[in-house]
Structures are given as C-alpha cells and as structure tokens.
UniProtKB/TrEMBL annotation:
<keyword id="KW-0288">FMN</keyword>
<comment type="similarity">
    <text>Belongs to the nitroreductase family.</text>
</comment>
<dbReference type="InterPro" id="IPR000415">
    <property type="entry name" value="Nitroreductase-like"/>
</dbReference>
<protein>
    <submittedName>
        <fullName>NAD(P)H-dependent oxidoreductase</fullName>
    </submittedName>
</protein>
<feature type="domain" description="Nitroreductase">
    <location>
        <begin position="8"/>
        <end position="184"/>
    </location>
</feature>
<keyword id="KW-0560">Oxidoreductase</keyword>
<keyword id="KW-0285">Flavoprotein</keyword>
<dbReference type="GO" id="GO:0016491">
    <property type="term" value="F:oxidoreductase activity"/>
</dbReference>
<dbReference type="InterPro" id="IPR029479">
    <property type="entry name" value="Nitroreductase"/>
</dbReference>
<dbReference type="Pfam" id="PF00881">
    <property type="entry name" value="Nitroreductase"/>
</dbReference>
Length: 231
C-alpha cells in the first residue's frame, strides 16, 4: 500500500468497536510520532497512553461524551510544555550532544540566540508554540495508524482545563493539546464510514507563487486596479 492509499482509506471514525490493537501496532504508531520533526529538535511534548476503562470513562465526561474515548483500544493524549525556559532548552540540547558525542558548547551560541528570541514572547506564546509542535507528531501518528490499518479519530473537543485537572497536569509543566483514540471501526453503527471522502480540489488547495506574482499585485494595487487571480 502507498501512503496516499492509506490516507484515502482513513477517516475520522465515529464509532469504534472496542477491539484491542496489538502491541506491535501501537508501538509502531508511537515510534512514528516520536520520530516527527520539531522546531530546533526540542520535542516540547510527550504522549500519555491510556487504556484503563475507568480513566477513559472520566475522560469521556470532559470530552463532550464522545464514544470513541471509551470504545477505543488506546487513547493517546498529546501534552505539550506549558512554556519554554533556558533550563528546559539546555537540558534537551545537552542530551542531544551526549547522544552525538559532542561537547555541550557545540550548540551554545544557537541556544543563546534561541532563548533570546523566545523569552520576550511570553508564556502564552510559548505554550501555543509547543502545542503546535505536538500537532506534527500527531499527524505522523495518524498516518502511521492508517498504514497499520488502525482507525484513529482526531479530537479537539474536550475541556482542556478539566482534563489537565483530571490527569494531574497542572504544575507538571505540561498542558493537554489534542486527543487521538486508536481502535477499529464499528461499521454498522458509523454513519460516516461509507461516505465519500471530500477534500478541497487540488487546483484550489495548492498553487505556485513567485516574486513576480507579488510584484504584479503590488503594481496593480498602486495603480488603483483590482488584482486579478487569472493572469
């Protein structure tokens, strides 16, 4: 199977059947997420893997009663740093240098410049940026699940504040970002399973842009002429 075939096969499963996925498949999906790129290699996130029925039931209560939370095999909770700090960045960079057999000073200038850029942006920007990084790993997990023919349902519909309290994340340095139930579809009860996959047409989704295109638009605007999309 090709990646495009896998992505065509997948959909946001609305009803799961409770069947367990194998440890091999779960570990494959987690490894794909772990190998995802992140800004400056910081990986300011981690994944909580939950299969305990009692805890899943509690999570469902703060996730708008979405049945996939309790009907899945495993729930992946992507949690991201609640902020950057020089100490956190240093710890990651030092670990990287240890793994590469290089002195810590190798990335000293880069670290200094990075923190000088991040520090004034404030804690809320930090938290949002870290959460955005977790979505890259999240997308990798979705693609890996499709490759393994494991269903997955992206879920942003939950109370982050209540979930953070439930999972005792407050004060831990992490915030919940997004949920990904993994399992298998219950076709007889899933209204979406037979529906056609619909996406924006490619000619609207992707278009080539050059500096000349921008220059022409600016010239037309300065001349008081409406910019045309058909040039």
């Amino acid at each position: 199977m090709s990646l495009l075939e896998d992505l065509t096969w997948r959909y946001a499963t609305k009803k799961m059947n409770g069947e367990r996925i194998s440890a091999d498949k779960l570990n494959y999906i987690l490894e794909a997420a772990r190998l995802a790129p992140s800004s400056s290699g910081l990986q300011p996130y981690k994944i909580l893997v939950i299969s305990d029925p009692a805890l899943l039931a509690k999570i469902r209560e703060v996730s708008f009663n979405q049945s996939q939370v309790t009907d899945c095999s495993h729930l992946l909770v992507f949690v991201a740093w609640d902020g950057y700090s020089e100490e956190r960045i240093t710890r990651v960079f030092n670990y990287t240098m240890d793994q590469r057999g290089l002195p810590y000073q190798t990335m000293a200038d880069y670290k200094q410049n990075l923190w000088a850029m991040y520090e004034p942006l404030g804690p809320e920007w930090h938290a949002q940026h870290a959460a955005k990084q977790s979505y890259i790993a999240f997308a990798m997990a979705i693609a890996a699940a499709a490759e393994q023919r494991v269903d997955a349902t992206p879920i942003e519909g939950f109370s982050a504040d209540q979930l953070d309290t439930l999972l005792q994340l407050k004060g831990s340095g992490y915030r919940s970002a997004v949920l990904l139930p993994l399992g298998y579809r219950q076709e007889s009860e899933d209204w979406l399973v037979k529906m056609k996959k619909v996406r924006t047409p490619m000619e609207e989704f992707a278009s080539e842009l050059t500096l000349a295109d921008l220059t022409n638009t600016e010239d037309q605007a300065s001349a008081g002429q409406p910019a045309s999309a058909d040039q």
